Amino acid sequence: MFNSQRFFRLKKKFMRIINIMKKDYRTYLGGSIILIIFLSAAFAPWIAPHNPYSTDVVNRLQGPSLNNPLGTDSVGRDILSRLIFAARPAVYVAFGGLSISIFFGLLLGLTAAYLGGIIDRLIILFFDFVRAFPPLILILVLLAIIGPSLISVIIILGITIMPRYGRVIRAETLSEKEEDYVESARSLGAGKVRIVYKHILPNIFASVLVLGGMDMASMIMWEAGLSFLGLGLQPPLSSWGVMLQESYQYIQTAPLMIVWPSLAIMLTMLGFSLFAESLRVALNPKAGQEGQK
Amino acid sequence: MFVYISKRLLWVIPTLLAVLFLLFSLTYLLPGDPADIILGPRATEEMAQDLRERLGLDRPWYEGYIDYIRSILRGDLGVSIFRNRPVFNVVMEVLPYTLALTFAGMGLAVFNGIIIGLLAASYQDSWLDSLLTFISFLTASTPTYIASVLIIVVFSVNLNLLPSIGLGEGGLLNSLYYLIGPAVALSIGWTGYIARLTRSSMLETLESDFIQTEKSFGLPSYYIIYKYALKKAVKPIIAVVGLGIGRLLGGAVFVEVIFTRPGLGRLIVNSIYERDLPLVRGGVLVAALLFVLANLLADISYAYFDPRIKQE
Fold it and tell me: Which residues of B touch A228 (CB under 8 A)?
């Protein structure tokens, strides 16, 4: 009885969010950009017109043509194909980094909220410690220690962003813990794990979702930025940041070459922010009456 | 308010100690023997020994840490390995450029952001509002390095209007001219953010009772906006400026690298490439210090504008 009621309440809440999002153009615009990126990542070998690694030095630094719609880079590789394949590391970083942030955020946030006392204090101290650094500088220093690679970028970005989740999860768990329904579940004899899993997790899901949408975008942004500085993914791998780095040397002679990866990154950021914004508006309890504000 | 500020000030000390600890342990965390990495394969054992002593690698770590903190308190950040000059001097030489860039970027962002936000709010729900809102969205989600690259491509390479490298020589005017591109690039993201904040804060203010009263007196709407509403609506913007300065310090790294300008960010990136450990430590320490100060400023200004914290 109790459970099915809660299920319907969640379902109703969910449908309300979907209905508000359906009326917002940002959902469609942002959603289709995100979809295009995911599709390119999943089907890159079938969509891309050329092999992104095959060089052709005779036809280097060419402008757009029928054979190479966006032209060729400094060693004659097809820019469009490289752009499409570069969606893959972007998606890996976004999902990988976010999973690490959410996993450790949940672990530390729930532990802090449930155990309290000195452990709570220590965990908060750790969060504040990570946040005390300028984010870019912390990432650079950690990368210098571990060495640049896809995996280290994912781990470091995940850890750097994690305190945001940890804090939100801790705060929401603390407030949910005091709610009547959690009290009643506890008095019925539900264990801590069951309470967290059945009652607390579904309720902090919404805040984590909005944060997550924005952070996927910022992880992709960081990855490209770090690779641009030569401290992230390494050439010849195709990543938007590596492409920026390679074409930066030719910015005076072949400026169009750097524009393509720039546009790809900009569109990605825009897509994720539009979608997250429409989600944020829909999750706001006041939404629906006020429209988009 | 006083209690809040003193608590917040005290909190800076453990934060800085933790930062110092991470910087100190870099010596041990970096893979391989630092002396070998820095000196390369052709170094003699004596040179390596000498460097290990200079870096304090021949002693237990806690002694080294205490010594490190002592020397920092004296203002001694060590000597750069490749430049053979005190790190303090190297950092202080480039710091003014980074600060000028950051403040110019923040100034532009506040100025343009408020204008865009006000325009959008005054023509609420018109096509101009939609257009400006979309533009602020687009700029808010544009990474600094993309803004820098696109500014160079459009204004330096294609239109030949702005320089793309360096600081400019002689004269304040020339320096300002060289600052335009980098400062605009740095400001882009926060311009959008501040524009959105201004718009929503302005709309909220315009709905409040005291503005409705002014309206009922028959005062013209532009007069109400500039004379009364603006004063109240800019408060949340002033509160985020401190936060923004911290963020822009990070963005400045990219701007300095892309526009090849000397500055703290580029210094840190280069010292990481070169594995110049004392310089990495010193540069990061100063950057972290600035960041902590900017955050402190942000928290205090928040408290100032938030009566709930103010009362504490």
Answer: 145, 254
